[in-house]
């Protein structure tokens, strides 16, 4: 059985795969669980899942990352927390490699999530002091 791309050292079907397989993504228990399943969806090129879990106010019309051929190499969640029952944050590092070689790259992000009708959704990346320097 294949290991889940999210980095939790679990079998995919018992980890993020259960969210990708159907309506369970509507009930991700935490912002971190949703973020991990979104990372796995990027790694597996499951664009519909990524769009379905994006808050309607910030959903892009076009997903260039799926067409770019980027290979996702790994995910590290630095920390995750909620500020209320309906807002949460996940700070993470995702590593990737562009098609055709070159050095690996790091995406460091602090993501904001909100819960709407009992459903966690990705809203946006929050600027941090580190990212603005």
Rounded radius of gyration (Å):
14 Å
| Estimated helix fraction | 10-25%
Order of helices and strands: HHHHEEEEH
Structural class of the secondary structure composition? alpha+beta
Biggest sheet descriptor: 4 strands, antiparallel
Q: Number of DSSP helices?
A: 5
How far apart lie the N and C ends? 43 Å
Secondary structure tally: strands? 4
Mean pLDDT: 88
Unreliable segments of 5+ consecutive residues? none
Instruction: Bin the strand percentage.
Output: 25-35%
Biggest sheet strand order reads 1-2-3-4
Shape: globular
Key terms for this structure?
single chain; 133 residues; alpha+beta; four-stranded antiparallel beta sheet; 5 helices; 4 strands
Question: In summary, what is this structure?
Answer:
The chain is an alpha+beta fold and 133 residues long. The chain is built from 5 helices and 4 strands.
Describe this structure in words.
Strand 1 and strand 2 form a beta hairpin. The chain is 24% helix and 33% strand. It has 5 helices and 4 strands; from the N terminus they run H-H-H-H-E-E-E-E-H. The protein has a 4-stranded antiparallel β-sheet with strand order 1-2-3-4, covered by helices on one side. The chain starts with 16 loop residues before the first helix and ends with a helix. The mean pLDDT is 88. The longest helix has 14 residues.
